[in-house]
Write a structure and sequence with these properties.
Keywords: Metal-binding, Transferase, Zinc. The protein is α+β, with helices and mostly antiparallel strands. The protein has six helices and twelve strands. It has a six-stranded mixed beta sheet with strand order 2-3-6-5-7-11. The longest helix has 11 residues. It starts with 12 loop residues before the first helix and ends with a strand. The chain binds zinc ion.
C-alpha cells in the first residue's frame, strides 16, 4: 500500500511473517489509510463487518472484521490494539480492547465471529500492540475483586503490589497515587486469547508502554497526570491478496 511509514510506526514480526497481511501500529496522531473501515468505539463487546463500518464511525462497535481487502482499523490511547489474521480464510480483524472491553468479552466476540466465518483457533495469528504496560497501569485495589469475579477469566490475572521497573522507559513511569496494584493488561488479553484456544506461539506482543516508552502524547493517562495532550493511535490491518 505504501513504501514509507510514519516515524515511530510499529509492526508485529509475527503478522509480517505471514506474507499475505499488511498491518501497522501507527504513531499517535497519524491518520489510518484512506479507505479504512472503523467504528465508533464504546468499550463494548460488539464487532461488526467491514462493509458496516463505512463510512467510518457511523456505527458503534469495538472491532471490525474484513472479509474483503479493505483495511480495518481501531484507535486507542492506552487501551490495547489487537490485530488478528486468519490463515485459513484470509480474513483479518482490528479490535479495541481496554480493560472494560476485554472484561465485557470483546476478544471472545471477535474470535467467535471469525470462527463463524470459517476460522479455527489454530488458524489465528494475533498481535497485541502498544498499550499502557504493567510498569505504569495503576489500578485501585477495589477493581481487582471485580476482575476476579469475571466469568470469562479462568486464571488469575497478572498484577503486582510492587511497581515493575521498565528498563526501556524513555520518560518517568507513572507514580503511585493511592492504595493500588500494577496491572498487566496485555497479559490479560493474551490469557483470554489462549483460553479461547489460540496457541501461545501465535500471539505476539509489541513491548511498548504508551505511558513511558512510546512517542510523546500517546497516553491518555499520562495526559490526566501532566495535561500535555494526547492523540489517538490508529492500528490497522488488511489482506494483500
Ligand atoms: Zn510504562
Amino acid at each position: 500500500m505504501q513504501n514509507t511509514w510514519p516515524e515511530h510506526t510499529l509492526f508485529s514480526p509475527l503478522l509480517t511473517s505471514l506474507g499475505w497481511v499488511e498491518h501497522a501500529f501507527y504513531p499517535a496522531g497519524h491518520n489510518p489509510p484512506a479507505a479504512s473501515a472503523y467504528a465508533h468505539q464504546r468499550h463494548s463487546p460488539d464487532i461488526i463487518l467491514d462493509h458496516e463500518a463505512i463510512p467510518p464511525k457511523q456505527r458503534d462497535a469495538d472491532g471490525v472484521i474484513a472479509l474483503s481487502d479493505r483495511p480495518v482499523a481501531i484507535y486507542t490511547a492506552d487501551c490495547l490494539p489487537v490485530l488478528i489474521a486468519d490463515e485459513r480464510q484470509h480474513h483479518v480483524a482490528a479490535v479495541h480492547a481496554g480493560l472494560k472491553g476485554a472484561l465485557a468479552g470483546v476478544l471472545l466476540t471477535a474470535v467467535s465471529r471469525l470462527i463463524e466465518q470459517g476460522a479455527i483457533p489454530n488458524s489465528l495469528y494475533i498481535a497485541i500492540g502498544p498499550a499502557i504496560g504493567p510498569c505504569c497501569y495503576e489500578l485501585g485495589s477495589e477493581v481487582l475483586g471485580e476482575i476476579q469475579r469475571n466469568p470469562l477469566l479462568h486464571h488469575t490475572p497478572l498484577w503486582q503490589r510492587k511497581q515493575p521497573v521498565n528498563p526501556d522507559a524513555i520518560r518517568p513511569q507513572a507514580q503511585a497515587t493511592r492504595d493500588s496494584v500494577w496491572f498487566d493488561l496485555p497479559a490479560l488479553a493474551q490469557q483470554m486469547l489462549q483460553q479461547l484456544g489460540v496457541p501461545a506461539t501465535q500471539i505476539d506482543r509489541v513491548p511498548v508502554c504508551t505511558y513511558c516508552t512510546a512517542e510523546a502524547n500517546s497516553s491518555y493517562r499520562r495526559n490526566t497526570h501532566f495535561s500535555q495532550g494526547y492523540r489517538q493511535r490508529f492500528s490497522w490491518i488488511r489482506r494483500r491478496d
